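Researcher: Last one for today. Full complex below.
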Amino acid sequence: NAGVTQTPKFQVLKTGQSMTLQCAQDMNHNSMYWYRQDPGMGLRLIYYSASEGTTDKGEVPNGYNVSRLNKREFSLRLESAAPSQTSVYFCASGGGLRETGELFFGEGSRLTVL
Amino acid sequence: GENVEQHPSTLSVQEGDSAVIKCTYSDSASNYFPWYKQELGKRPQLIIDIRSNVGEKKDQRIAVTLNKTAKHFSLHITETQPEDSAVYFCAADSWGKLQFGAGTQVVVTP
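Model: Here's the assembly. Have a good evening.
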């Protein structure tokens, strides 16, 4: 039981390059989330998926796209990376649907955009 | 949408003393308030949570209190130990999504 697994752990991009962060969970959770963490700003929600087949914007969605591939997997794509997207990205999953509950986070992906 | 404010941003305490972190929220419909602890370089992990039908909850040295009328909730850590040093985040749910506070860096000095 691996919990929430996200890849890659580290990535360096040049401005304008694209990349996809992958996330998978094996806890049969309905809801999955992508957060970014910047110093002094806590965890800010980028996108979330309340259930398979649905995605919605969070607080800071600009410059990102997501895909809920199936119940287990939720990917985050940067189409044209910008220095402002330098951050630590966390994927999370939780029971969701009727009642908000504990979120389980992945180990994080540290992205640097030059 | 929900707005969560957290204070203080840093907190230094002597080992054995108590630590208190306070959060306020804006959405009166919020009914779930978790606290996460994040050690340096690690992922956030839930340490305690409370729902709006409860005013206080304890788990060993940590406790959370909730005042729905005033829209604020607090984390209390008693008898602090060096392993309590970490960043603590409060959060409030908003339509199935968690809105996090900016975090409190807690440093426990021996």
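The CA atoms of residues 38 and 44 of chain B lie 4 Å apart. Chain B touches chain A at residues 1, 6, 9, 32, 34, 42-46, 49, 89, 93, 96-103 (CB under 8 Å).
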